[in-house]
Amino acid sequence: MKVKNLLVAIILLGMTNITFAEEVSLFEKYKSKLRPFMSKLAGEAFTSTIFGPPKKTYKLPPIPQINASATSTKVYDENEIGTPIKDKAVKEKFDYKYVVEVYDAVRGEEAGRNDIGKWLNVLNQGGSREGVYRAIVLDETYGGMENMDNPINDGSIKFTIRFMERFFDRTIKKKSIEGVNLYRLKREMTKRALDMVDSFAASNPEHLYQWYSVFSAEMAREFKGVWKNRARLVDDAAFHYKWAKGVPFQHLKSELIIKIHKIYNSIN
Predict the structure, then answer these.
(1) Is 7 exposed, middle or buried (CB count within 10 Å of its CB: 0-12, 13-18, 19+)?
(2) Which residues contact 32 (CB under 8 A, 6 or more apart)?
(3) Domain ranges of the chain
(4) pLDDT tens by residue, 143-178
(5) Phi, psi of 126 (to 5 degrees)
(6) Which of 103, 141, 142 is nearest to 119 (CA)?
(7) Could you tell me if 187 and 137 are in contact, meaning their C-beta atoms sit under 8 angstroms apart?
């Protein structure tokens, strides 16, 4: 017991010296390596008081192959995925919020009254949120943004590489995306994500909820300063899994659209 206490004391002393030296990155590096050792020696409760609670990790489902055409994957009934909203007034309220937010996240501008009215009318007539988004990023205004001299920075490159590896099971090289326009990259990555959602929906909706929940939980943890909405701040995959099953399928897609654009906006 004395030996164990001595070892713990030595570890804590070393950590204190690192902290006083203000070597934050070095401290974080040693913390991740020392945590399992400290937990084994002193127990998880004590370790958590020193290092903080352990990071939550979640398991992704098997990643399906994305077909070349997004439309080729749509062999499912949207009404059978998620939970539809039956109250028309509630639906219109959420649709209004979506149109306002998607303009801000995608274009970085406030939606005008005419734009809001036009897209709400589309949604009221049975149009989809995904369709509204695709129309916005394929119009002349967004095309002009893609032609601006606005290349992505190192932060966006690193996030894209990690995003592709983690959630698409694809490896890309830094060189292949260097110099890409930010707005083009946002559109391309969102398109890939929506195609992935369609692939999951066609093959296994449960895997779709799982994939979305892991993505949302990890983005909540990694980009805390981005989210104003309380639900988006929750870093518990179980919470996002339940949310995904309890809303209409198009709401899941629209959350993915907004989150991807907001993340890139915050990095770049």
Answers:
(1) middle
(2) none
(3) 2-51, 70-267
(4) 999 999 999 999 999 999 999 999 999 999 999 999
(5) 100, 5
(6) 103
(7) yes
